[in-house]
Amino acid sequence: MNTPPPSPGAERTDGSSVRIGALVPLTRPGWVEAGQHLLAGLDLAVREVNDAGGIDGRPLELVVRDTAADPEKAAAAVDELAGLGVTALAGEYHSVVARAAAARADAHGLPFLCSSAVLDALTEQPTRWVARLAPPQSQGWQIYADFLLGAGHSRIVVATQPSAYWASGTRILREYLAPRGGAVAEFDMSSLTPAALCDELAAGGATALLLLVGQPDPAVPIVRSVRRDPRLADVLIGAPAGQPEFAGWAASLGGDGAAIPFLRYLPERLTPLGVRVGAALRERLAGAPSFVAFEGYDTVAVLADVLRAHGADRTRVADAWPRVAVEGTRGQIQFSRTPGISVWQWAWTPVQVVDRDPAEPGRFRVLHSG
After folding, report:
1. Which of 24, 31, 195, 323 is deepest in the core (most CB within 10 A)?
2. What is the pLDDT of residues 86-131, one digit of tens each?
3. Report field, pTM of the whole predicted structure over 0.85
């Protein structure tokens, strides 16, 4: 996979450019493939802005920092970027990391447009400084629960690991499914082997297993074990967090990685902009762009529009969130206050449940839309 380099001159401090700090997981234990797609989208949009004249004649530049899925590293990066004088922050894929970054951005009075993280409680208290493109976890995971119920699955097992993100997902599923006749049993994979999990599944009679675990380990070994256990031939494997979205999943599992439904934040049809951007991203990534790449592009598209209209003053950028109206790759982007969500939220993010086609694992099937 081709990873785009940071934009030239990203570290200049002479005031000649308008700089955006970009938080991206580019090394392990971060989800590197997701980080590469996110950076590809961010970088493509910056280059297109600059090809069109920049921000009132000034080039737009990214100051990229690798968060490596580490909240402390992300918080330190925000402190550094605030000191460097960036106008705004963009990016981040991992929810727990984005939460740490959002807290520091709020403390510094630094606008942060979060591209991909979905944790509902992105900040402890309502903030004027942070906006988000990805849907809240509660919205997406409730749509996923509707898909499960519609497909006849009410006895659900989640294989999970200790994390605020996985714990939040389990709670959302349990609270949504319980009044609708569903039940969720939880197994901590920090104390179970994949083989032991298979024994629990066979004994318990659940019809669906959801992977609330890291990729590739232990997600890939769990899938292999379940697929090879004849007792579990009728058990649906699901991955609401999106592990099967990326090419690395198919490369690791082949046909075993197909027919595993996951959440994807794409519409039925991309906008004309999205079609053009998708082609450019495919060339950059030497493969199909994920929804995360489109999130990256849309992040810069929004920030560039705000900067052109309101200038590079941090306070004016944050004050502009409720006035945003930008045609992105996946639809018209506007922000509003959503009940229970502490940041400015794109309320109409498209949500799909999709899987890889068993007959052609490189092709995705849309199973449900919300």
Report:
1. 24
2. 999 999 999 999 999 999 999 999 999 999 999 999 999 999 999 9
3. yes
pLDDT in tens, 162-203: 999 999 999 999 999 999 999 999 999 999 999 999 999 999
Q: List phi, psi (to 5°) of 264.
A: -140, 140
346: Cα separation from own chain's centroid: 14
